[in-house]
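Researcher: Structure for this, please.
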Amino acid sequence: MKNFSFYNPTKILFGEGRIKDIAGEIPRESKILVTYGGGSVKRNGIFDEVIAALPGYNIREFGGIEPNPSFETLMQCVEVVRKNNIDFLVAVGGGSVIDGTKFIAAAALYEGEPWDIVKTYGKVIKRALPFGTVLTLPATGSEMNNGAVITHRASRTKLPFMHPLLYPEFSILDPTKTYTLPPEQIGNGVVDTFVHIVEQYLTYPANGKVQDRFAEGLLLTLIEEGPKAIGQPTDYDVRANLMWCATLGLNGLIGVGVPQDWATHMVGHELTALKGLDHAKTLAVVLPAMLDSRREDKKEKLLQYARRVWGIQTGDDDERIDAAIRKTREFFEIMQVPTRLCDYNISADIIPAIIEQLKTHHMNRLGEKMDVTPELVESILEKCL
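Model: Predicted structure, token format:
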């Protein structure tokens, strides 16, 4: 196991009815801006519940943060923050709203060109506004980590950034707030969480036995509970387990001391930026082909994954790896997330553009061994058709 430092200051308030406790986490004199997405939190009453939990506070709102939040929209919110001297943010929504709010928290206090925050992957951040979250769509783990991903529409660029100042102060996780989510969003959330875990687990052995077992337990829970969430939308225990899986899948715990991959995510980001495909759908398309193409480098962990997660015990090494990848693809399909580019009417014509984007963003060596080149990505994408 590698040396590591682990730090996560986010306070989690988990369970039904926890929105009422939000006032205890925000200083009374705060000027609050509540951020949200397309308006579903107003239609389902969650927004009103948040406001009701903050009596006497000075509150403004900003809605319209898109899936794959855009720099252009977020800068409109930054202007609202600056104009009204906002000093605390509350993100009400899923990963996109929370990611966007992280950018707003940093950009509102940044004196240079705000896009530099993203271009430098967060290195130029010196200050950030405090913020909390009310999670409505478990998927990204953004409610308990310090990272975000933002899209620059004008240049069709989607990049991640992170900084220790971008951990939420608190996050409200109420599983009942996910009951009204449509099956497509549930499927996306489960797949997103699954691939987050895989990117930290399916690399090469580092004798991180605790991290491996944590990761395997989360994967098994997703496999067991994911399909139930679609068929039993108001089962509290199912939704609670999925919500906690999503948070633990990317709060830093399972990735400490072990190598991490993230090549699938970087390729997926380019696919989203160019074609607007949902993030989780890009992951479902890319991951099976990525694992197949890199089976030799990942052989030991793939065989462990086959045995411990899918219970595959028979056949030679290649047969077991084939079966594990096939099971992974089948699981995504069970979650109603198609796994081929053709399923989304995307042809091979997109491949050169993705490769060019990767080169433009200096992503010429990806993966846990930094050996995933644009040429390899091209061959991987050909398997995704």
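Researcher: Any notable elements?
Model: The mean pLDDT is 97. Residues 107 and 113 are 9 Å apart (CA to CA).
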